[in-house]
Amino acid sequence: MATTTDDTITEGGLLGPMFKLAWPIVVIQLLQVTYNIADTFWLGRLSSNAVGAMSLAFPLIFLLISIAGGFTTAGSILVAQYTGADSEGSAGKVAGQILTFVTALALTLSVLGYFATEPMLAALPSQGATTEQVVPLARDYMEVFFLGLPFLFGFFVFSSLMRGYGNTRTPMRVMMVSVALNVVLDPLLIFGGGPFPAMGIEGAALATIFSRGVASVLGLYVLFVAQTGPNVSVASLVPDLDYIWDIVRIGTPSTLEQSTSALAMITLTAMVVQFEPPVVSAYGLTNRLASLVFLPAMGLGRATNTMVGQNLGAGKDDRAESAVWIATKVGAAVMFGVAVVAALVPEPIVSVFMATGTDAARETVRHGSEYLRIRSVEFTFMAVLQVMLGAYRGAGNTKTAMAFSMVALWVGRVPTVYYLAFVTSMGATGIWVGMALGNVVGGIAAALWFTRGTWKETVIDDEETETPETPTPGSGEPDLSETSGASEGK
Fold first, then answer.
1. Does some domain include residue 436?
2. Stretch 300-323: mean pLDDT, rounded?
């Protein structure tokens, strides 16, 4: 499709605006994964047990994060649709309400997570070696992480709101600063250096929390001072029950989706920890690599969220549908190319993140290489699923997105892993095959349902929209020239 410099999210060609939205999202996700990869890289040089501890800790942490995370999705949806409908006032009001609601929720979850760490870990079945060597390290990591949980959510909310508005470059710049801090702090706090004592796995958690806190502060500055996103004011933070109800109504299915995803991860982890520590470490290491591989698909999925939301808000249903199919084709093609590379050379990729000086480390690399090769089969289907989920969420159909996410996890993945790993004689290989099957099933099912066309409705009320005195910049990538210097300097 031909594009011009005048193409915006709701006008002109689709490919250009989608690319402008997607590439900063991919960079943000790449930077997000860099947090995890930096931790994994340095902890892999500390011990394989430290990497295994991360494998145990992450699903449990994600379970509580997902409770608040679903409501940031609601903010992105509502801001996108109000922006597409030229209702800048309502977009700013929603943004303020999301900030208030999620901050209160994050504080509650921080306390809950800290005190629930021990019971959650105790509930995981594991064999003797894993219990003695890995679980204590996971506990240390989780307790520090949960204490700093509120510092994470400021950036999550900021990034989600700006994405709905159509500005993905500013969050990317903020994220760059945060990741740079984490990369510098990780080795200093894990191994010690200068004024910093050696803190081991707790140092990795502290580095992440501090870096995310800086990102949250910068995000709030952008929203309230630089004003390159929704027009948020201090008055917008005062709770408004009508808006909060919209947030709860739309965000609850997304919260349930993310929570059931976390429960699926915990269930899978509970199965995996019954194997020897190298399998546990390979599972965690390769899952982190997979999250890196999936970045193009996830970026297109989130860009589709904004494209669909703003175009439905503007009353352009056909344009929203066209955007979805373009994203599907591009995503599938890119991920097929990535799959070929992963299938051909998995061992060199896995070896980068694990020192192979011990038998346990070499065994971890062997299992991880097999895991990555098998999972390459799902990559194309992963792209299809992510774009379709983005389309459903952009339309406000968070219940539909939840349903297909659950199909992928609870129909295609969890029971298959159990059957292949424990009922048959496949062992660890059964885990890898079952993990790959989930996205294949979910991608096919979500695409078939999309063709029915029943998703084309908005979730905003017409009477709440208002026409601003000046055109809103949210219909395209906002002009950041006035704040680019400040943003780049952060």
1. yes
2. 88
